[in-house]
Design a protein that fits this description.
13 strands; elongated; 29% helix; 16% strand; 7-stranded parallel beta sheet
Length: 325
C-alpha cells in the first residue's frame, strides 16, 4: 500500500507508523507545497493520503482509496474534488487535551499561582490568608456554558462536574438534562444561554451555520464578568464583536486558542487577528495549541492506522465523512 503524509501537520503522525500498519507499507512524507516531479508523482500514485487539505490545485490521485484527515476539521478538504473511489475519514482524540486546557485556563484565572509566586519572591504577601481583601476565586459553584456538545463538550462536562461546576449546554440538537447537564438550550435560545452562565466555551465546528454565531447580540446578553473561551474555530465568534466587547470591558475576559489569521507561505509569523487583540490586557492568547499533545498524536495515529487496515481489509471504516462510491 502506498501511503502519503502530506504537509507538516500530517508528518507529525508518521513516526513509527509502519509498525502500526505493517512493514509492507510504502510511506512517503511530502511537503505542504509539492516540489518537483517526484513529489507530484508520489501524490498522484498514493492509495492513502493523510492530510489536512485537498483542492483542485493538487495532483489528482486517481487510485486513491482513503483520504484521512489527521484531525476533526475538514473544512479545507474539497470533497467534490477528490476521486469517488476515495473514502474520507477524520479523527478526534483531542478532546481530553482540550478539556484540560479549558480547565487549566479557568483555574489560572481563579487561582493566581504564578502571580503569587512572582510577588512573594519580592517579599510581597499579596494573597496571604487572613484578610478579605486578599481572597482569590474558585471555580466550584460557577456555571460553565458549552456551545457545542460533541466530543470536546462532553469531555469538558466530565471535568467541570469534578470541580463542582454547573453545566449548561447549547446545541443544534436538543440535549436532555442529566446528572451531568443541568440545563440545555437549542441554538435559537443562544442569547438566553449566554446570559445564564459565567463561562462560555465555544467548540462548534466551522460551517455556514456557525460562522459568527457568537456575535454582538450574544455578547450583549452575557454577564458583565463572563469569560469566553474559543477552542473551536476562530470565525465562529464574530471578530469585531469580540474585540469590541473586550475593549469596552462589557465582559470579564477571553481565552482564545483559535484565530482569524494563521501563518502562511508569505507570512510565517503573523499576529493572529485583523484587530489588535494583543493590546488588550483581558484576553489570554495561545497559538491553536489546546489539543496538540503527545496523547492526541498517539490516539489519532491509532485511528488512522486502524482505518487503513480496515480499508484494505474490506471492513467498515470509523469516523466516515464521505463514503467511497
Amino acid at each position: 500500500m502506498r501511503i502519503v503524509f502530506h504537509g507538516e501537520n500530517a508528518a507529525s503522525f508518521s513516526h513509527g507508523f509502519a509498525g502500526l500498519v505493517g512493514d509492507e507499507a510504502e510511506i512517503r512524507l511530502l511537503p505542504d507545497h509539492l516540489e518537483g516531479g517526484a513529489d507530484q508523482k508520489a501524490y498522484a500514485e498514493a492509495e492513502v493520503i493523510v492530510g489536512v487539505k485537498f483542492d483542485a490545485s493538487l495532483p489528482q490521485p486517481a487510485g486513491l482509496k482513503l483520504f484521512h484527515v489527521p484531525g476533526a476539521g475538514y473544512d479545507m478538504v474539497d470533497l467534490g474534488a477528490l476521486p469517488a473511489s476515495a473514502a474520507v475519514c477524520n479523527c478526534f482524540g483531542h478532546e481530553q487535551a482540550i478539556a484540560e486546557y479549558v480547565m487549566a485556563a479557568l483555574l489560572a484565572r481563579n487561582v493566581p499561582l504564578a502571580d503569587a509566586d512572582r510577588r512573594l519572591r519580592q517579599g510581597d504577601w499579596a494573597y496571604w490568608a487572613g484578610a478579605p481583601e486578599r481572597v482569590h476565586g474558585e471555580i466550584a459553584g460557577q456555571t460553565i456554558g458549552l456551545l457545542g456538545f460533541g466530543h470536546i463538550g462532553k469531555a469538558i462536562t466530565a471535568r467541570a462536574k469534578a470541580f463542582e461546576m454547573k453545566v449548561h449546554v447549547a446545541n443544534r440538537s436538543a440535549v436532555p438534562a442529566s446528572p451531568l447537564v443541568d440545563r440545555a438550550f437549542t441554538l435559537d435560545q443562544l442569547a438566553e444561554f449566554c446570559g445564564s452562565v459565567d463561562v462560555v466555551v465555544v467548540s462548534v465546528p466551522f460551517t455556514a451555520e456557525t460562522k459568527g454565531i457568537v456575535g454582538a447580540d450574544a455578547f450583549a446578553a452575557m454577564r458583565p464578568g463572563a469569560v469566553v473561551i474559543n477552542v473551536g474555530r476562530g470565525p465562529t465568534i464574530d471578530e469585531q464583536a469580540l474585540y469590541d466587547a473586550l475593549k469596552a470591558g462589557r465582559i470579564g475576559g477571553a481565552v482564545i486558542d483559535t484565530w482569524y489569521r494563521y501563518p502562511s507561505a508569505g507570512d510565517s509569523n503573523p499576529l493572529p487577528a485583523n484587530l489588535p487583540f494583543h493590546e488588550l490586557s483581558n484576553v489570554l492568547m495561545t497559538p491553536h495549541m489546546s489539543g496538540w499533545t503527545s496523547g492526541t498524536i498517539s490516539r489519532r495515529q491509532g485511528v488512522i492506522a486502524d482505518n487503513i487496515k480496515r480499508r484494505f481489509g474490506g471492513e467498515p471504516l470509523v469516523n466516515v465523512v464521505r463514503a467511497s462510491a
